[in-house]
Amino acid sequence: xxxxxxxxxxxxxxxxxxxxxxxxxxxxxxxxxxxxxxxxxxxxxxxxxxxxxxxxxxxxxxxxxxxxxxxxxxxxxxxxxxxxxxxxxxxxxxxxxxxxxxxxxxxxxxxxxxxxxxxxxxxxxxxxxxxxxxxxxxxxxxxxxxxxxxxxxxxxxxxxxxxxxxxxxxxxxxxxxxxxxxxxxxxxxxxxxxxxxxxxxxxxxxxxxxxxxxxxxxxxxxxxxxxxxxxxxxxxxxxxxxxxxxxxxxxxxxxxxxxxxxxxxxxxxxxxxxxxxxxxxxxxxxxxxxxxxxxxxxxxxxxxxxxxxxxxxxxxxxxxxxxxxxxxxxxxxxxxxxxxxxxxxxxxxxxxxxxxxxxxxxxxxxxxxxxxxxxxxxxxxxxxxxxxxxxxxxxxxxxxxxxxxxxxxxxxxxxxxxxxxxxxxxxxxxxxxxxxxxxxxxxxxxxxxxxxxx
Length: 454
Known about the structure:
Layout: H1 4-13, H2 29-39, H3 49-54, H4 70-78, E1 94-98, E2 104-108, H5 111-114, E3 115-118, E4 121-124, H6 133-143, H7 163-171, E5 208-209, E6 215-216, H8 235-251, H9 265-278, H10 280-283, E7 296-298, H11 299-302, H12 307-311, H13 314-320, E8 344-346, H14 368-372, E9 380-382, E10 392-393, E11 398-399, E12 402-403, H15 414-417, E13 421-422, H16 441-451
Antiparallel strand pairs: 1-2, 3-4, 5-6, 7-8, 9-12, 9-13, 10-11
């Protein structure tokens, strides 16, 4: 009989996936990859249909019957979004599949984190900045009669995930050949990394990936880490590698959504000149002849919260390099992975930046205006965690937020406390990247107008 912990871990494993870059040699590969990613379950199903239908019983003791418009209420509760592809009415991140015993049930997939919504539209490849992964896992387990706590915190602030910690945990369950171990290996897990999920459409420009630039973006196997579910056997990785080469080809076709509001083109032209003088050295240039320097900015220069960088340690890196994942291609993984020649964070491309709020690797800055004006950044804030046009700030370019005067009452449920972003907490600092502080207010707003066009 499968242990309850393994079922919970199987759900957790679906939450993260990496990226890659290189053009597809086979012109039919992107379509095959799209069909595989959006049409198949790669982990055994672990959530019963009854748990999905009865999750509302976990929401409020006073709730006596299923809410009207249940699917919408379910999505808002956990921060999930309508699927822009055929999915039998389920939100992105859930799909019908089979348990190990062949019964129909629901499986989770990487679109829980990599399927987002902005201004009322869902997009494959947009990071999900509304998700409360911890709440989803806790309540779905309870709805299925499994009162099993997750082995570490998977969400410290709503809209962020502990994807790095998940990788460290799951690799600790397996031998280097990916067979299951008898007991978990301690690979120095940290669950205070507070990671914002990057957009997949940025992968096509990158040579290295992850917030620290620690992985080679050509890697196909990195896309498969969500399959480290304890319910998958070691043989599944070799069997599905070709499928994920196609998935990679599909990801490289994704484009950012167009800004849906009017743009002052004259102001944008002014902003372009300021941007190219101030920002392009790290973030590249845009248009038909775009450039991207793939720059890793040292910690002492960027000054942003260093917890994510130091939270994936050499203990994990040394083990990872021994595994099937670490032996994909000679030279693709640095001998000192996860360290880099310069210890810092990768300055990302800014294509579709309007849609990728909040900002910084930990989601600690709600708008582009705050990125460019460090003195204005809120220390404590919350937002609706809905993703309609009314929840978006087209002036400052990002999410509308409400300032909070004090930390949440410790007596509140944890899921309520996670709605408040407290930048004084480990991994959640909003300092650094002060490169826009010298701009005048007019220059700052001109840059923002230009960024709407990317």
